[in-house]
Design brief:
homodimer, 26% strand, 5 helices, Alpha/beta knot, alpha/beta, Ribosomal Protein L25, Chain P, 11 strands
């Protein structure tokens, strides 16, 4: 079923109005009519089954009729600390990582990064990236839309805010003692940062820039840059969901 | 390092010639010269570090100088039984699943499949798909190139050749008792089939067509069709590698 997000706090059998561009989507894209239903995630991250009770010009009025109890969010919060990637690979990584449960994205300037952006370009990109993430959140039935922003050089990152920081370093593909499954289990609610390198790989300086980093290998094969977060997120989901 | 595949059985310090289109790749794409090195996987699935000792017109002669001992293949053999998917999504799934360790692909005709192909088209597609898989195998340092072919309707599949067959059924996204991590562990060398549905999902008939099927959910979020095998393969790699 189609899912939307609102900042409102919904209540059963109280009427609400759909905001902004979702109105256009409901009327012109989905071509919903009165009595059609959709899912709405409200400001409290609760999910409601909603029924359209009135459509007038650009105003859609709806009624939350049922509250869902199941959560689709990972018990551990995973922030993906990612380099810019060439072409469509980056947006693809955002879409998939959102599907796979990432809670946030921070883009860093990799030493070997091929893509360089000025601030004007960055702002434009963020608008597009947020749309990709929002659509993937709706499609995969997330209750949270992951945020995304630009950070600086990896070495300037302050990781103290994370309970754990895991970094995938290609050089370790054959060191089984660094397998992801050798890591201690994390606790529900803990915050994780996952760092991976660009097409050209991480430099040694980046791979060891913080003593808190836990270096892992993602299996014995060499994954493309954009594949690394999917391997990590799938494994986290496998363990904790 | 660049990796190629050969049917020859290599031996240290014996000279060999590069076959067919790899010759073009070495001379014109990689622009290798005498003394440059690459990796070659031979017919016995052994990996050798090789050195070019002569390049003449369209003939590249090389010398295996070192044999690698590490395997990059999964201890369990995973066959991906997949529907045709729209547009580039299918080739993308093949590339990623190869990276993530799949050992074989069988394409089935899904009840809700959007894409239909006649035999002539199928043959053309297979040629392209095999190239995608071969390149992903080289890039991810596989020692086996996964095979791919077309099967018929899912309900006509004979699964008796597999030790286990796992099927992902979207309807179960919220049934935690079907989480992948509730499955018994598989033994090294066992053969696994993993089945997932097309964009429109599996029909009930397909989801339960064989009593040997083990139904699983791939986390609580709704994954796009092409994402399902990556979640499964990552989890298998997490457990067994």
């Amino acid at each position: 079923m189609q899912r939307y997000f609102t900042q409102d706090q919904l209540n059963i059998n109280e009427t609400f109005e759909v905001a902004g561009e979702d109105t256009h989507h409901i009327i012109n894209v989905m071509r919903f009519r009165v009595d059609d239903t959709f899912e709405m995630v409200d400001g409290m991250k609760n999910v409601y089954l909603c029924k359209i009770i009135n459509i007038e010009e650009q105003t859609v009025t709806y009624l939350p009729v049922e509250k869902y109890e199941n959560s689709s969010e990972m018990p551990v919060r995973v922030t993906i600390i990612c380099p810019m990637l060439k072409g469509e690979k980056f947006e693809w990584m955002l879409q998939k990582s959102t599907e796979f449960g990432a809670s946030e994205f921070i883009i860093y300037e990799a030493d070997r990064s091929i893509v360089k952006l000025d601030d004007k370009k960055k702002d434009k990109r963020l608008i597009r990236y947020r749309r990709v993430i929002k659509e993937a959140s709706e499609q995969s039935k997330r209750t949270v839309i992951p945020d995304i922003h630009f950070g600086g050089k990896l070495k300037q990152f302050d990781l103290s805010g994370f309970d754990h920081t895991v970094i995938a370093y290609e050089g370790n593909a054959h060191d089984q003692s660094l397998s992801l499954n050798r890591l201690e289990k994390f606790k529900d609610g803990e915050s994780l940062a996952f760092i991976f390198g660009p097409e050209g790989g991480l430099t040694e300086g980046e791979a060891g820039f913080d003593t808190a980093l836990k270096t892992v290998r993602l299996g014995p094969r060499i994954l493309r840059a954009e594949s690394a977060p999917l391997y990590f997120l799938s494994s986290m989901s496998y363990i904790y969901e």
